[in-house]
Write a structure and sequence with these properties.
mainly alpha, disordered C terminus
Length: 152
């Protein structure tokens, strides 16, 4: 049959065949979604700082689930512990984000509006050396009561 508006030939589907196709599509989406849900449930990431002082676990969304401090942290300066914790957290979050995007790309597709939305909701996590906080007031190591001098 010719579409009078577009001038295209279109094959008319039998309504029952169309419903069967939609049921198959829904079943495939449901299976893909259930598989992704199971994978996300197992996708926690554990990471440590380079010195091995702190190990953290984050879920696929980057939420901190736990932190362990090694016995070597005894006597460490608070600024050193903070830096170690943040380094481990950034590493874990970066890995968790990559895992989550990989899992979700199987559900929503690689180059789709849904995937672009997911990517846009993720924080930018830099792979550079972590800032030690000394460049801004309020960062660790900064002593607001010591006239702006840094604690040693």
């Amino acid at each position: 049959m010719t579409d009078p508006i577009e001038g295209l030939n279109r094959k008319l589907l039998d309504p029952d065949e169309w419903l069967r196709q939609q049921d198959q599509r829904i079943a495939a989406l449901r299976a893909s979604s259930e598989e992704a849900t199971a994978e996300l449930a197992r996708a926690n990431v554990e990471a440590s700082d380079r010195a091995g002082l702190v190990t953290v676990t984050v879920n696929p969304s980057g939420v901190l689930m736990s932190a362990w401090f090694s016995p070597r942290t005894q006597g460490a300066a608070p600024a050193q512990l903070t830096a170690a914790l943040m380094e481990a957290y950034r590493t874990a979050t970066r890995e968790a984000s990559a895992k989550m995007l990989d899992i979700m790309s199987n559900v929503v597709g690689e180059d789709t509006d849904a995937m672009n939305f997911l990517k846009s909701t993720m924080p930018d996590i830099e792979e550079d050396e972590p800032d030690d906080g000394r460049g801004s007031p309020g960062g660790y190591g900064y002593d607001p009561y010591g006239q702006g001098r840094y604690r040693s």
